[in-house]
Design brief:
It is built from 2 helices and 3 strands, in the order αβββα. With about 70 residues, the chain is an alpha+beta fold. Strands 1-2-3 form a 3-stranded antiparallel β-sheet, covered by helices on one side. Strand 1 and strand 2 form a beta hairpin. The chain is globular and about 35 Å long.
Length: about 70
């Protein structure tokens, strides 16, 4: 399933790292924002979510990048 909503991306990250309590740091830029997931122990998780101001994902391969990130965990 291709991720198309930000809430889906959050859910997938939280499901992929079930033993981690995840919160998000937001880095806002001109016309886009990057959500950086951080575990409760302060470790940055190995994936980010980039969103343009029109609501589209900056990277259209989120699912593949998440799979690679969980493989390194």
């Amino acid at each position: 399933m291709k991720t198309t909503k930000l809430s889906d991306a959050f859910h997938k990250i939280e499901t992929a790292f079930p033993d981690r309590k995840v919160r998000y740091h937001v880095i806002a830029g001109r016309g886009e924002a990057t959500f950086v997931p951080v575990a409760s122990d302060g470790e940055t998780l190995p994936i980010t979510i980039g969103i343009r101001d029109n609501g589209t994902f900056i990277h259209d391969d989120f699912d593949e990048r998440l799979a690679r990130a969980t493989a390194t965990e």
